[in-house]
Write a structure and sequence with these properties.
seven-stranded antiparallel sheet; single chain; globular
Length: 352
């Protein structure tokens, strides 16, 4: 039983573009340190305007301008500016995701947001290592399946570079695929689409349980069917085609599709404004609003007071001692929440 959530991917403002290969320029020095739907609804891929060009060889990058850093150059995460720049400039539309063999550039925003959160939270060498090892460990969990076309040796090297506190932009593109694969572990229907709040919640809980330094300053928000992450004062948006502002990250906004936070008690909490209707015969992805859910299950109708209502769910990060994680503990928690939801035992609540 897949965890229930829904949303429709926003149409891109312009056709996605991937940098074209050109003659490699001189090396650039790395930056120096500075003095849904959950069933809760499912995130659908956005409509494609045109097919992106085939992936250019990673080593064949165009010469950077003075303001650019070549994608193969490793960054020093001990610098706040380097962390901020890497997280905010790492696009989900890149030579890896646009490769026709993967072709998932329009739906890996949840994975990209998770990686950006790990980068922004790598404030010390120890934190960078913890975050890298948490992602590496999560890839060993049951039901995690990396794309066959993904270069596994390159991914291992990317995680090693992250653990050393110096990943490149090319490394980030590989890490996005890894995080997305872990998030898809929580979709038992195995549908290749964007992560919904439950799936991203499972990914965040998994990383947190394995030692990632994610804390209450880290907030994942879905708006216009696109995930971004805010850490402190920095918001990282992996798709420049989707405009996101602070208002769009509020439940009061019509485009808001959910969020995932780490509470101060350590619990990972997700919220969603709609849930999938498992009984829909005509549309398997049909969504239920709070009013429709209450009507279906004979519950008291929500008040027509203009207040946004929906659902919340909690995930307690599993202990890293023993084998709870490899047995799918977070998945079991989501299954229990889903069962209550499907049986009408989770009346919608006010989303503040």
């Amino acid at each position: 039983m897949p965890p229930p959530v829904s949303s429709a991917r926003a149409k891109p403002v312009v056709a996605p573009k991937v940098a074209q290969p050109a003659v490699a320029g001189p090396p650039v020095a790395a930056e120096a340190p500075a003095t849904g739907s959950w069933q809760p609804g499912a995130a659908k891929p956005r409509p494609r305007v045109q097919q992106p060009p085939a992936r250019p060889a990673i080593t064949e990058q165009r010469a950077p301008t003075s303001a650019e850093i070549a994608p193969e150059v490793r960054r020093d995460l001990s610098s706040f500016e380097a962390r901020k720049r890497l997280a905010t400039e790492a696009s989900q539309v890149n030579p890896i995701s646009a490769d026709p063999k993967l072709n998932n550039f329009d739906r890996i925003c949840g994975g990209a947001a998770a990686v950006n959160a790990l980068i922004l939270n790598s404030t010390t060498p120890e934190a960078a290592k913890q975050n890298a090892e948490a992602l590496r460990s999560s890839l060993g969990a049951a039901q995690v399946k990396l794309p066959d076309a993904l270069d596994k040796k390159a991914l291992e090297a990317a995680i090693d570079h992250f653990a050393a506190g110096s990943p490149s932009m090319n490394d980030v593109f590989l890490l996005q695929q890894a995080a997305y694969a872990v998030g898809r572990r929580y979709d038992e229907a195995n549908v290749d689409e964007g992560l919904n709040p439950a799936q991203l919640g499972g990914l965040v809980a998994d990383l947190k349980a394995r030692g990632a330094t994610l804390d209450p300053n880290t907030i994942f928000s879905q708006s216009k069917a696109h995930w971004t992450v805010t850490v402190g004062d920095v918001t990282a948006n992996s798709d420049a085609n989707v405009t996101i502002d602070s208002a769009s990250r509020s439940p009061a906004n019509k485009g808001w599709g959910g969020d995932v936070v780490i509470r101060r008690d350590g619990i990972v909490e997700g919220r969603t404004p709609t849930v999938k209707d498992p009984d829909s015969k005509t549309d398997p992805k049909a969504d239920l609003t709070p009013a429709a859910y209450c009507k279906k299950h004979g519950l008291e109708a929500p008040k027509a007071d203009g207040v946004r209502r929906g659902w919340t769910f909690e995930l307690a990060p599993a202990s890293t001692t023993g084998d709870l994680l490899t047995k799918g503990d977070h998945l079991q928690q989501l299954r229990r929440e889903t069962t209550k939801l499907v049986n009408g035992q989770k009346p919608p609540t006010t989303l503040r």
